[in-house]
TrEMBL record:
GO terms under cellular component: cytoplasm
Annotated protein name in UniProt: thiopurine S-methyltransferase
Location(s), subcellular: Cytoplasm
EC number of this enzyme: 2.1.1.67
Organism: Sagittarius serpentarius (Secretary bird)
Length: 196
């Protein structure tokens, strides 16, 4: 594969949690991601009241924006700190409840009910727990999952998508022999083979 020396690289859940604890979150975009602004019409496709999924959401500001537009937003993130910061930074009241199907998981939900953020591993989710989605904003998830887990990740994402779902994916392009990642390099050929 042309992912060079990255294919065996593994970043543990603990390492991600540590990034959040240390505030080492250069990947967070405080003003939102310019590509979502640019391609929002493609994601929404003229539809309103959608269910939109944010895999590995961190504290993405777009979750509030899309909820304010009348969409229902669901995110998943291992860092509880990230999720709590999201609600605090947007002055959004929320409640916390356990997720009975997932040991140790929590759901943080805005009291308005249109933002539900799951604190757990993405691989613990299933459509029976979170339902299916009309849109997915994958701005840093596929490039963050360990290369050896990509197939598992994409298979899960496909099960979470409605028939007419839109999937907006951001990747990064660089020489994978010069950077160990994350974000990982995912060549277009691999994206095509993963998503079919």
């Amino acid at each position: 594969s042309d992912s060079g020396s990255q294919k065996d690289r593994v970043v543990t859940e603990e390492e991600w949690l540590q990034k959040w604890e240390m505030g080492n979150i250069g990947f967070h975009k405080e003003k939102g991601h310019p590509l979502l602004k640019k391609y929002l019409d493609v994601l929404l496709n003229g539809r309103s009241g959608l269910r939109i999924f944010f895999p590995l959401c961190g504290k993405a500001v777009e979750m509030k924006r899309l909820a304010d537009m009348g969409h229902s937003v669901v995110g998943v993130e291992v860092s509880e700190k990230a999720l709590k910061e999201f609600f605090t930074e947007h002055n959004l009241p929320y409640c916390e409840e356990p997720v009975p199907e997932i040991s140790g998981a929590k759901k943080l939900q805005s009291t308005s009910g249109n933002i539900s953020l799951y604190c757990c591993s993405i691989y613990d989710l299933s459509s029976s727990i979170v339902g299916k989605f009309d849109g997915v904003w994958d701005r840093g998830a596929l490039v963050a999952v360990n290369p050896r887990d990509r197939q598992r990740y994409v298979s899960l994402m496909i099960t979470l998508m409605e028939k007419n779902s839109s999937y907006l994916l951001v990747t990064v392009s660089y020489d994978p022999n010069k950077h160990k990642g994350p974000p990982f390099y995912v060549p277009e050929s691999e994206i095509k083979s993963l998503f079919g």
